[in-house]
């Protein structure tokens, strides 16, 4: 099966949701009840098969089947809960957004949208189910964005302190193993988790298992089936429990266990790289311009834009013509003013038109995906955006670190509050019916 690369913050890379299978099998039971919805056994079976197919000749790295089924079922449960929460809080995904996401997937795989549809059909995948799953992923992404906007605050003081303490541009490739603890864990649960993480660390210390295999087999983290991979991170994106020690680690070294908000963790430093240069000056050309937009690409739209260009050419004030005739409701009230922007801000085609003008000059009509434009360039300047970019990047790093902790806590709370009944048909290990 061809694997498509999703350009979505929450794209699910480790399993294929219901309907993403090459074959359709009859429903043979319920694996779990999640509030008012269900996860079918056939859905769980397909997701597990996809995992084993991805691992291929490395299947020996996977945990025993009952444990693997538990890991995959937990992912399905969380997806179900997030989708339901998104819908209940008014998150809606429009058809145009889904179309844009499908076009992005096609581009990333060097396909046209029609070729993507044909490839899905050739692989035996239902396009309607593919589209529905994509809609769910977009809804979850929107839910996460709303959560971040309402829950995550990064102050200027935090940014200032982080920039002052930034010793280098080094980035770290990390992996972790998590032994999770429930909210309000009892002393017995804490002791059991401590014994488990200590046992995993002992296996690693004796060389009986490498870190990636141990993460796949034992970790409770959402990245377990990816070998615990956390990707490349700067010091400001590393979990706070490890920030002070990771700089002194060697590649391959494992530290921990350390208890954090989610439970006990082991952290491995896989590699380091120099990301220096982020503090250099970044001089860019910015343009100041106004535009008039006529939406549409038919003869009538072309006639309108020509008429508006003729009025400007006859001496009418550009801003007055924009207020009177532009279809851009955002800028028409300001006479079409776009403010200061860089070349790529409104797409390369628009930027090429503006950069070809002299200050004060008005373009001939030209077409973009939005419709027909005429542009008047009113100024240019060279600006060092390095300092601003560094602050924005640091603010985003701090925000992402906070969001990761808070979002995981939110998911744990959401799962603990839900009615979840895992049925014997699921064939999973380590769970009991009803939660």
TrEMBL record:
Which keywords, in A-to-Z order, does the entry hold? Chaperone, Isomerase, Periplasm, Repeat, Rotamase, Signal
Q: Which domain of life is it from?
A: Bacteria
Signal peptide limits = 1-21
Per the database record, which ranges form the PpiC domain? 169-271, 284-379
What does it catalyze? [protein]-peptidylproline (omega=180) = [protein]-peptidylproline (omega=0)
Where in or outside the cell it occurs: the entry states: Periplasm
**One GO molecular-function entry:** peptidyl-prolyl cis-trans isomerase activity
EC number(s) reported in the record: 5.2.1.8
InterPro entries associated with the record: OMP_Chaperone_SurA (IPR050280), PPIase_dom_sf (IPR046357), PPIase_PpiC (IPR000297), PPIase_PpiC_CS (IPR023058), PPIase_SurA (IPR023034), SurA_N (IPR015391), Trigger_fact/SurA_dom_sf (IPR027304)
Identify the PANTHER family for this entry.
Answer: CHAPERONE SURA
**Function of the protein:** Chaperone involved in the correct folding and assembly of outer membrane proteins. Recognizes specific patterns of aromatic residues and the orientation of their side chains, which are found more frequently in integral outer membrane proteins. May act in both early periplasmic and late outer membrane-associated steps of protein maturation.
Q: What is known of its domains?
A: The PPIase activity resides only in the second parvulin domain. The N-terminal region and the C-terminal tail are necessary and sufficient for the chaperone activity of SurA. The PPIase activity is dispensable for SurA to function as a chaperone. The N-terminal region and the C-terminal tail are also required for porin recognition.
Report the protein name in the record.
Chaperone SurA
- The scientific name of the source species is Luteimonas padinae
């Amino acid at each position: 099966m061809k694997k498509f690369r999703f350009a979505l913050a929450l794209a699910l890379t480790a399993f294929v949701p219901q309907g993403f299978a090459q074959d359709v099998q009859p429903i043979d039971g319920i694996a779990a009840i999640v509030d008012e919805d269900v996860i079918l056994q056939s859905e769980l079976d397909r997701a597990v098969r996809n995992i084993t197919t991805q691992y291929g000749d490395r299947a020996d790295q996977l945990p025993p089947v009952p444990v693997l089924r538990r890991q995959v079922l937990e992912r399905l449960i969380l997806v179900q809960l997030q989708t339901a929460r998104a819908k209940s809080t008014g998150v809606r995904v429009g058809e145009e957004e889904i179309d844009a996401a499908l076009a992005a997937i096609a581009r990333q795989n060097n396909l046209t949208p029609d070729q993507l549809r044909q490839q899905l059909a050739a692989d035996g995948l239902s396009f309607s189910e593919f589209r529905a799953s994509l809609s769910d992923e977009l809804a979850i992404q929107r839910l996460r964005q709303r959560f971040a906007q309402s829950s995550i605050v990064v102050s200027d003081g935090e940014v200032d302190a982080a920039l002052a303490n930034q010793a280098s541009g080094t980035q770290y490739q990390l992996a972790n193993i998590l032994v999770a603890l429930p909210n309000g864990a009892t002393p017995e649960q804490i002791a059991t988790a401590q014994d488990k993480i200590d046992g995993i660390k002992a296996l690693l210390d004796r060389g009986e298992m490498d870190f990636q295999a141990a993460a796949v087999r034992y970790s409770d983290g959402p990245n377990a089936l990816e070998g615990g991979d956390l990707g490349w991170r700067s010091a400001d994106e590393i979990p706070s429990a490890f920030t002070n020690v990771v700089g002194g680690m060697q590649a391959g070294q494992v530290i921990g266990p350390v208890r954090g908000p989610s439970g006990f963790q082991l952290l491995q430093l896989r590699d380091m790289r120099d990301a220096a240069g982020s503090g250099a000056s970044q001089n860019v050309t910015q343009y100041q311009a106004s535009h008039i937009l006529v939406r549409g690409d038919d003869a009538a739209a072309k006639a309108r834009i020509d008429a508006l260009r003729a009025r400007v050419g006859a001496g009418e004030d550009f801003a007055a013509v924009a207020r009177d005739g532009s279809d851009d409701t955002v800028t028409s009230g300001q006479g079409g003013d776009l403010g200061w922007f860089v070349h790529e801000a409104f797409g390369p085609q628009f930027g090429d038109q503006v950069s070809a003008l002299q200050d004060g000059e008005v373009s001939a009509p030209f077409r973009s995906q939005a419709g027909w434009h005429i542009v008047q360039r009113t100024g240019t300047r060279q600006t060092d955006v390095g300092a601003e970019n560094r602050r924005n990047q640091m603010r985003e790093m701090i925000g992402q670190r906070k969001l990761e902790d808070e979002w995981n806590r939110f998911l744990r709370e959401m799962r603990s509050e839900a009615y979840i009944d895992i049925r014997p048909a699921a064939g999973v290990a380590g769970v009991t019916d009803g939660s």
